[in-house]
Design a protein that fits this description.
Helices cover 40% and strands 17% of the residues. The chain has 14 helices and 14 strands.
């Protein structure tokens, strides 16, 4: 068992040394990667800072003398990521541990995010109680709040660091009792307001012999699915809930970025897509909504989530984007339109019911979707069982035709 600790040994040598000692006392081999650029290391590294800088295509002297702090942190993050990835590929690490403030949190988690899902990744950080998305991204990085600053060893820091180290021991020394499933894997996207659709489709696909993985369309959820499609983990896609494009276009908090919908198209992965929850843009608590949106239609989903109805103009632009993205697909692709509502809130009698906005979305799709993409329109809302089963059947048809079905 081997654990890599990524840390600034010029400022956190004592604390990192303590984590190393806890790991070694449990029989774990430790490899220290020094990412410090301020001074000489307080304890001896296994990979020194100059090697990390070189892995990023620069020199430690430059980072110490000429680069800004931001430039130095970015370079050490790139170097640490390169080294950690190489060690993983060479079978030289079973997990990665980091500890530090904002600087080394950025560096260490950059390295962690290069590793596949399932490789243990633990970050003890002063930043863990705030917005962790920049550090975690779409990977399974475990963030542990340090409580006190990581500056010297005391009754608090010893306990927190030891707990993190022992958690890592547990992960690298025990193989999870998880069966390796050889069934073809389908990725699905879901929001609370599209849950009935996804549940029905998932049950159908599992009955047909597929394994399913559902991603919550919260920005990082869409990013995670796109990454796994590119890695070949996902064999087929039932992209029910493309709502992240509403946040990307309008400025909500759950955007998956402008590359959302690219992976399936570029890899030729069989995909069936719909317009789930494109009636809404996501914000935090009601008082966090930017002033520019005052006067719009809102729905308070819970105290922490406020939804804003998309306009006909926004829907038209979203429809054009989705059509153009899917038109680039190199594999079998279908787009399903639920003409009576794209979410639980977008049906007659509910807050976001707006046939004009929906029609703007659908018209833009019709006008811009390439003829090679199968377009299916159904007089149902998205959560109707018939709609869910129709999409699932179409994806199964594509999978079987591509030789990717469960009976192939």
């Amino acid at each position: 068992m081997s654990v890599v600790i990524v840390g600034t040994l010029d400022t956190k040598g004592e604390e990192i040394g303590f984590a190393r000692d806890v790991l070694e006392a449990e029989g774990v081999d430790v490899h220290l990667v020094d990412t410090g650029v301020v001074d000489d290391p307080q304890i001896e590294p296994d990979t020194d800072a100059s090697e990390v800088a070189e892995a990023a295509g620069t020199e430690l002297a430059h980072l110490r003398g000429e680069a800004t702090r931001g430039e130095a942190m970015e370079a050490m993050g790139e170097g640490a990521a390169s080294i950690v990835q190489r060690m993983y590929e060479d079978g030289e690490l079973d997990g990665v541990l980091g500890l530090g403030g904002s600087g080394n949190t950025s560096i260490a988690t950059s390295a962690m995010r290069t590793l596949p899902v399932g490789v243990p990744k633990v970050m003890v950080s002063t930043m863990a109680s705030g917005d962790t998305e920049p550090y975690v991204g779409s990977k399974d990085v475990m963030m542990m709040y340090s409580v006190a600053d990581i500056e010297g060893l005391n009754q608090l820091s010893r306990k927190v660091i030891a707990n993190a180290a022992l958690a890592m021991v547990g992960m690298v020394s025990n193989q999870p009792d998880v069966n390796v499933d050889e069934r073809p894997t389908i990725g699905l996207t879901m929001f609370g307001v599209t849950t009935p659709c996804v549940q029905t489709a998932r049950e159908y696909l599992e009955d047909r012999g597929y394994e399913t993985v559902v991603f919550h369309a919260t920005g990082t959820g869409g990013q995670a699915m796109e990454n796994l499609i590119r890695q070949g983990v996902i064999d087929g896609v039932l992209d029910v809930t493309t709502t992240e494009w509403a946040d990307e276009l309008v400025g909500g908090v759950l955007s998956a970025g402008p590359e959302r919908l690219d992976a399936g198209a570029e890899t030729g992965t069989p995909q069936v897509v719909s317009t789930g929850a494109l009636d809404m843009v996501n914000f935090g608590p009601r008082d966090s909504v930017p002033e520019e949106f005052e006067g719009r239609q809102f729905h308070v989903h819970n105290p922490q989530v406020t939804l804003m109805r998309t306009t006909p103009e926004e829907n038209a632009e979203i429809g054009e984007i989705i059509a153009e993205k899917l038109s680039m697909a190199s594999g079998p692709t279908a787009l399903y339109l639920p003409l009576e509502g794209v979410s639980m809130l977008d049906v007659a009698g509910e807050d976001f019911y707006d046939p004009e906005a929906d029609e703007a979305l659908f018209d833009a799709i019709r006008a811009n979707l390439d003829e090679s993409i199968e377009l299916v329109e159904m007089e149902t809302d998205i959560n109707d069982d018939d709609f869910a089963v129709a999409m699932a059947k179409k994806l199964d048809e594509y999978m079987q035709a591509a030789g990717l079905g469960p009976n192939e």
